[in-house]
Each structure stands twice: as structure tokens, then as C-alpha cells.
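PROTOCOL LOG
Step 1. Enter all chains and additional molecules of the complex.
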Amino acid sequence: MFFDLWWLLKSAIKPSFEIIVLWIVFYQILVFFEGTRAFHVLKGIIYLLLAFLASQLLGFDTLNWLLTKFFGISIIALLVIFQQELRQGLARLGQQHLFNPILEEAEMVALIEEMTAAIYKLSRKKNGCLMAIERETKLKTYIESGLLLDSKVSSEMLQSIFNATSPLHDGGVVIRGERIVAAACLFPLSENPNFSKIVGTRHRAALGLTEQTDAIVIMVSEETCEVSVAVEGRFLPVVNEERLVSILKDLLITVNPKKKK
Amino acid sequence: MKNWFTHNLALKLIALGLAVFTWIYVNGELMK
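Step 2. Run joint prediction.
Step 3. Record the structure below.
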């Protein structure tokens, strides 16, 4: 009886452990490629893999033969296509957390207060700024266009970055969790024809990024010193500091419905 | 850390599907 139970446990634990290891590996690969152009290539490979497995299960010999040959050759092609990503991946191995950070409500409030303080101080000093807060869609492509920082978000740090004499003040910063991941990043410009032609590049970049991703972009206009928040390809009116805090809380905290009672 | 399971759920499910599929396939090959 005891040996039966032990055998049953052993035969269940081993496959479960193997599947969990495979799950973590696959998840890490998907997270790594998410938000990059290589993700589409990866999706194509997954479809082909599914076709290959289906052809084996259903006994389609011709299709199976073709796909087997194709996968044999494609290993070399993949090494060439993903050369850059593989190099970056190996360099980052061991540095990355297993899963992305998710902030508690108190941490998020502290983060919003730091950002708001920085934004209004910059606005009073007539310094422009552009900050993107990453949400579900990864901003890896835009992070790579700037300078990697990995610094904790603080009002002083943001003010230093957007100081007019700082070499990093052109372009935008990307905030992930409570870290400033990169500065001087280039965001895509909006090509919305309804948008006034006289509006500056910073506005267009703020809108452009929110049209293509679910990020929240906060900006200060260098000319008018006005603060704006862009989300989903449109600007939300910001009249004062309290309003900015309330908008950011709505967008960043109430996303989790379980927390809101 | 909150909502560990629901964060990036789609990717987690795809990864789980791939893991199970791969395990079954490889196991089947090894059994031959």
C-alpha cells in the first residue's frame, strides 16, 4: 500500500516538475520576445510547430516530411534572424527577475506622488518633459532607442534628467514598475491628420506612443508649460496637480478591480 | 507582489500549452 502510494507520487511528481520547468522556460522566452519585432517571427514558428505536431498525430506523411526538413534547415536561419536577441538574452541571463514587478497600492501612490512633484517642478521651471509609464504592452523597442538607466523613480532624478542642460533631456523616459528603465528614448510620432499641424513634436510623440501601445504618457510643454496626460491616442485635460494625481490613480491603481471595494 | 496569476495571463497560458504539448510529444518519441 505504502509502496503503491510512493510509486503513484513519484510518477506524478516527475512529469509535473518537468512540465513546470518547460513552462518557465517557454514563458521566459515569450516575455523576452514580447513587444519586439522578433515576436511575430516567434508566433510564425509556433504556428509551424503546431502544424508539424498535427501532421504527425494525423499521419500526414508528405507534410510531415516537408516540415521535418524545413525545421532542420531553419535552425541556422533562426540563429541568423535572432542573432541580436540571442546576444542580448545571454547577456541578461541571471539579471532578470523571473516575473515582472507588480506594485502594491501604497507603492503606486508613492510613485505617482514622486512623478507629480517632478512634473510640476519642471513645469514651473519651464522645462519640457516626456514620461511613458509601461503597462501590459512592453516598450522594449523604444527602451532600446534610448539610454538604459535602471534607477528608482524619484522627483530629483526626473528633474535632473529633464533639466535643459542635461544631455538626456531630449526624448522621453520609460518607467516600468518603480524604476526609470531608460531616458532619451525616441517615441513614434502620431500621424493623426485631425491633430493640429502646429503642435510640437513632444505632443506628437506622446500621442504616437499611446496610439501604438497601452502606455500612459505624461508630458510638459516647453512653450506653454502645460501638463498633459495621453492615453489610448488622446489627451486627458489636466488642470492642476490634484487632477493629475487623480487621473494617474484611476489609470494605474483601479486597473485591479479586486482591490477596489 | 499582487495578482501574480492574472498578470500576463495570455502569455502564461500559451507557455503552459506549449510546455504540456512539448512534454507529451517528447515523451511519445522517447517511448517509441
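Step 4. Note key features.
The helical segments of chain B are 9-31.
Chain B has a mean pLDDT of 81.
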